[in-house]
Amino acid sequence: MRILALDVGRKRIGVALSDPMGIVAQGVKSLEVKDEAQVMEAIGEFIRDNEVGEVVVGLPLNMDGSEGPMTKEVTAFAARLKEKTALPLKMWDERLTSLQIERELVFFDVSRAKRKKINDMLAAQIILQNYLDSKKKNDYSD
């Protein structure tokens, strides 16, 4: 079973997918958000094509852990996605992922235009890898 991760934004949604064993996350693509119905259909198709059994959605909390306006938008989107897919869905704290990606891309001298195109996909990858690592850690502590 593969796990899908989404970094949901107003303009783009980053998409990442785990390997079948749930060990490694790989950034796949970014979806342009023009129409939510179209995005939901694209995600649903991706889920079917890749045998996804679980979805993780990045939860954009403020640095102090409080919820902001984007938190409510993403939570509402996740609820609609869960209803459409009927898959288990987990919200995952995504604080600092964008900052981490930005620093790494600047360090590797990636142009600003290219950073903008891949930032969301890489954020989804980090969200998913953090989730997978947490699951492994919990498996070992049981």
Largest sheet properties: 5 strands, mixed
Globular, elongated, flat, extended or rod-shaped: what is the shape?
A: globular
Q: Topology as H/E string?
A: EEEHEHEHH
Structural class: alpha/beta
Rg (C-alpha, Å): 15 Å
- pLDDT average, as an integer? 91
Strand order of the largest sheet: 3-2-1-4-5
Topology:
Elements: E1 2-8, E2 12-18, E3 25-32, H1 36-49, E4 52-59, H2 69-85, E5 89-93, H3 97-107, H4 112-141
Parallel strand pairs: 1-4, 4-5
Antiparallel strand pairs: 1-2, 2-3
Helix pairs in contact: 3-4
Describe the fold and architecture.
The chain is α/β, with parallel strands linked by helices and 142 residues long. 51% of the residues lie in helices and 25% in strands. The protein has a single domain (2-135), classed as YqgF/RNase H-like domain (Nucleotidyltransferase, domain 5). It has a five-stranded mixed beta sheet with strand order 3-2-1-4-5. A hairpin with a 6-residue loop joins β2 (12-18) and β3. α3 crosses α4 (112-141). The protein starts with a strand and ends with a helix.
